[in-house]
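Quick one: structure for this chain?
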Amino acid sequence: MDMDQTPRLAPLTLRGVAFAPPLFCAPMAAITHSAFRRLLSDFGGYGALFTEMLSARMILREDRERSPCLKRRPGEGKVVYQLMATDTVRLPEIIDRLLPLRPDGLDLNAACAAPTVVRQGCGSDLFEDAPRLRAILRVMRRCFPGPLFAKIRLGRQSEGWQSRLEERLRLLADEGVDALTIHPRFFEEKFKRSARHALYAELARQARLPVIASGDIRGPEDLRANAAHLAPASGVMVGRMAAACPWVFARWRDPGLRVDRAEVWRRLCGYIAEDFEPARALVRLKVIAPYFARNFHFGHTFFKAVHGAHDFATARRRSEEFLSAGPALARHVSLDGI
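Got it. Here's what it folds into:
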């Protein structure tokens, strides 16, 4: 199928806020901070960017104007703030603290199954606790007038998962959620098997809400290849491929876009250095390095150079040595194994 035959996504309007196109960059821990969102905004092509998952109580401690977790630049366009909430204690105060940032949406994470998140009663643990989930959503809806999103998976892979999921979908709609991001894998699977795109028709019917498709969507080629299964979705979310190729949304619009990967990496290093002190900057660089390394035929060398560095300046110098040699590009960017 020709690129021009990629299914067109109609703008998604929620509470008067238009997301056009309804292409979203997924929230990714230690990646979708202010420096990375700045890089994405250099290319454009998306409808909104999501912050990384933010500890609700951490928001009370951070400097809104300086924190890479919270601050936003005008050029970013629409930004949705994703919350990791345990309970309703101080939640109105937390939301009130975000309001001066003029978020274009709030998103509740009820999908993450990382042990550190689950132990705090957030993410997938919150999904399993219907009364607590309902209480948190009720406060968020009361305190925030804009679009309210929630992100979920299919739940736990055990007997009766379909009925439990349907109950949660009813709860989310009843409590005023405006749009739902569904990653069609079970909590236990992480990225071990293909996302079940064929479920979207039934999920959209049960949800009674606009559904944003997430999981194994790397670009327009996946939208074309799975057009029938993804047709019920009102939007598309791209995650790890955006970490590897920050120009992915721009290429959706302009498939002939040419990108100097070395220049992009150098720019990202500069942006991270501006927003983070050196120790935290090194961590952010190491988190994204395995993704960006997939652009190169010998990307493992790039990855090892960055991950073996003990300080930010060394990581930056080593990556520059690799890039200055004019490394061969990979024919296809694969995220297998990450």
